[in-house]
Amino acid sequence: AQSVAQPEDQVNVAEGNPLTVKCTYSVSGNPYLFWYVQYPNRGLQFLLKYITGDNLVKGSYGFEAEFNKSQTSFHLKKPSALVSDSALYFCAVRVPYGNNRLAFGKGNQVVVIP
Amino acid sequence: NAGVTQTPKFQVLKTGQSMTLQCAQDMNHEYMSWYRQDPGMGLRLIHYSVGAGITDQGEVPNGYNVSRSTTEDFPLRLLSAAPSQTSVYFCASSQGGGGRETQYFGPGTRLLVL
Asked: Rounded to whole angstroms, how far apart are CA atoms A32 and A19?
């Protein structure tokens, strides 16, 4: 069963405009949710996570994400996109059984147009 | 503090050959894992370890072996390479394996099996 869905393959946004990368999840129990970013030919870098508490989570590089339990979503947002934000973004959720592994979405390519 | 390092960066193998992908971390992390990244599929867990001497299978373990003789090192062995193992391989580490922890990723090894 798909644990994480990132419905868009690519997100194009003009520099200075708001950026949203969508993520929905389907796991039982309380979800642990993560966003990672991958720049070309690099490993993944941690952006932010939701474990418990405030539904609005602030992370690195001006990114934030809102946990919405009723919609089972954890969308990543940035108020004003930069060209340097162009990268591949992955949403991940802890699978709460067995080995507590992270299930990753397929990733979203973000292209910020100057 | 080098973080997570991986060698080699790129490797070409012929079908049936064996090789070892190296991974090391200098953060004294207990939990280490190997993922493969394929286009449109996100990252999938191959094997993981919760400490020296302890390893277990992830989502896609077939064709791969691991061992963890020290806290720092977690090599991944391909016993008899197949074209289906063409992928980008990432090693990651975290302080614990409970699912809350941030994972730190290496730069990756790009493997081509002919």
From this structure: 23
Distances in Å between the Cα of A80 and the Cα atoms of A14, A40, A68, A83, A85 are 9, 21, 22, 10, 10
- Nearest Cα residue in chain B from A91: B42
What is the C-alpha to C-alpha distance for residues A108 and B15, in angstroms, rounded to an integer?
32
Who's near A68: CB < 8 A, 6+ residues apart? Answer: A55, A74, A75
At residue B97, does pLDDT exceed 90? no
**What is the per-residue pLDDT for A3?**
87
| Cβ neighbours around A59 below 10 Å, total | 18
Instruction: Report the SS3 class of residue A61.
Output: helix
**CA nearest neighbour of B97 among B56, B50, B58, B61:** B50
Q: Which of A4, A101, A105 sits opposite B45 (nearest CB)?
A: A101
Q: How confident is the model at residue A28 (pLDDT cuts 50, 70, 90)?
A: confident
SS3 B84: helix
| pLDDT at residue A81 greater than cutoff 90 | yes
The two structure tokens encoding residue B41: 């599929």
Rg from Cα positions in chain A: 14
Q: In B, what residues contact A, Cβ < 8 A?
A: 4, 33, 35, 40-45, 48, 56, 58-59, 90, 92, 97-100, 102-108
Element (H, E) at B39: none
Distance from CA of B18 to the nearest CA of A (A): 24
Token pair in block for residue B24: 């090391």
**CA atoms of A3 and A105, how far apart (whole Å):** 8
